[in-house]
Amino acid sequence: QVQLVESGGGSVPSGGSLRLSCAATGYTYMTYAIGWFRQAPGKEREGVAAINGDGFTRYADSVKGRFSISQDNAKKMFYLLMNSLKPDDTAMYYCAAALDSGVWWQRPLAGATYRYWGQGTQVTVSS
Fold first, then answer.
1. pLDDT by residue (tens digit) across 40-70?
2. Which secondary structure element, helix H or strand E, spans residue 123, and what is its range?
3. Are 49 and 64 in contact (CB under 8 A)?
């Protein structure tokens, strides 16, 4: 059973930066891939970034060049560095774990690909 706990959310002005963290337990390196998702009130959940055990990454077009996903497998920690934040980035951010399989490679930013989810951390960007 994989358990995920996010942290690092907060309120920042437009143009600011935040680094979100995701602590994983019950996680086996090279077995799971990790994704970061977000959901704003009244909007659909959106996959923003994903990474697998080999370090391959995928990003949503809306965050390319601004967000960076990384991992510390020794510590079982995953990070989402968010730069040049915009008010449209305001949302609850979740990390999720999926089996690193062909399904992940086909749909790394689809929520249905992921089995385990954290409780989320709120990010608010003011204009």
1. 999 999 999 999 988 999 999 999 999 999 9
2. strand 121-126
3. no
